[in-house]
Write a structure and sequence with these properties.
Blueprint: H1 3-19, H2 24-38, H3 44-50, H4 61-73, H5 77-84, H6 90-94, H7 100-111, H8 116-124, H9 136-152, E1 156-157, H10 158-173, E2 178-184, H11 185-188, E3 193-194, E4 197-203, H12 206-216, E5 222-224, E6 227-231, E7 237-243, H13 248-256, H14 259-269, H15 278-283, H16 300-305, E8 320-324, H17 335-344, E9 349-355, H18 367-383, E10 388-396, H19 407-410, E11 415-419, H20 428-440, E12 444-447, H21 465-474, E13 478-482, H22 495-500, E14 505-508, H23 520-529, H24 543-551
Parallel strand pairs: 4-7, 8-9, 9-10, 10-11, 11-12, 12-13, 13-14
Antiparallel strand pairs: 1-3, 2-4, 5-6, 6-7
Helix pairs in contact: 1-2, 1-5, 1-7, 8-9, 20-21
Length: 557
Amino acid sequence: MTNKDIGAVLEETADLIELTDGNPHRARAFSRAARALGALDDAVPKRLSDGSLSDVDGIGDAMVDHVTDIVETGTFPLHDELLNALPPGLLDVLKVNGLGTKRTRRLWQELEITSLDELERAATDDHITSLSGFGPKTQQNILENLRQLRAYEDKWRLADAWSAAASVRNSLRALDAVERAEFTGALRRHREIVEHIDLIVSTTAPEVVSDWIAEQVETPPTRDDGVLSATLPDGIPLRLHWTTPDTFGTEWWRTTGTAAHVGAWTDRFGAPDVHATEDALFGAVDLPVIPPELRAHNGELDAAAVGTLPNLLTVDDLQGCLHNHSTYSDGADSLSAMAEAAEALGYSYFGICDHSQSLQIASGLSPAEVRQQHDEVQALNDERDEVRVFHGIESDILKDGSLDYEEDVLALFDFVVASVHTGFSMTEVEATDRVVTAVENPHTRILGHPTGRLLLSREGYPLDHERVIEACAAHDVAIELNANPYRLDLDWRWVHRATDAGVLISINPDAHATAELEYVAWGVRVGRKGWLTPGQCLNAKSQSDFAAWADQGPDTA
């Protein structure tokens, strides 16, 4: 099991304790342990084997015993005991955005709602408003969020699908009968949400591959026209395309691009001949290889034909890592530990952007804490030569669009990331006015996660992207592509439009632990879908160039 899998069991245990009206301090202990495991660089089983897991803050001897059971069996006695005390469908109800454990428990105890179907009927029949504190607006929100949850069923975030696919791919590569196994389809194009995993295998013995897949799944796979379909143990559908070595290139191309891309190619060049490699396929029509992320019929064939395909951004192009959190607010690691981790990853500069004072739920910094952190940043920069720490803040965009501090505090920061965290129930005009007002503030340098979306969990607030991009261009404000795999916001579909307007894109991990600094890889993957190049990426600038950019605003540029 991965650290994430183990943490998920502990986090679910925290929810189960609260749902059964258990000790809230105990629930928090499990939640804290889950977060600690998620922040570990080492694999939990390795820590268990060398006896060092109890050295992790928040992991006591009893928690080590629980984790040992989880690693060995996938669960532990307390988790099973709590789970058996609840109706089977109650955890599904808990998944509805906006409910939380307290409201879910009340719905269960007072209205006997124990499933999504019962919740939908109660909301449709206006029964939920009978509970104190549940008015008509709350009831309508519950109904809308429930239906949105159902719309998300059978869909998977890129990072989760990638992890599952990589495990299968690596196992296939170990089979003697397999010459090559690769990602293809939407996964290879780096879609942020996928409905299934596509892999392609080069083999002359497909029956060996089929038998191996059958051993991994509970329901026998089906085979149709060169595609084997199965459902992996974690519920993700798998489509395995197989081909022979001499046709691999053509089949990999065919299964990678969207139907529109393949159709446009066929209209222009005819169906491709059989090729062992994609290089040969593209070369046969005198085109450079089009990056897989761009194969979606968005002008890539025309650009390839005239030699204007972009030199897409890579993780290696990133020289700085901006928008990160520490224990000053809601992070798991200290400022110095975060900076050291950034240095170890090869970055020449690091931006700390803890939460601002109004976001109390995330322990936002008071003005006094800002000044304390400011002094620590200066001390860190005096101590080290390899990585420079820039003192930033993730300032809440308040309801009226203002930033969260007085002028004297805002002036202390090297740069400000402005983000909306509260008050999501806005019309498009209200949301856009609020964001644009923040962009117009001379202290704002980066607009953080512009729509506030959480993939497969929460839709972002409605936003007039054109107006926001125009404001960012006019005021020299970069737009964040938040690389947290639950966000990936700015949506890649707007990246090309923003860069065409001259707006820089900042690939930010929004890291709350050292391990999360590597989230930037997900941002780069989807940024490439938006034709993003190194010259259009803020944190691909050198340390000196970023410092100069951060120092200047539209009035001094």
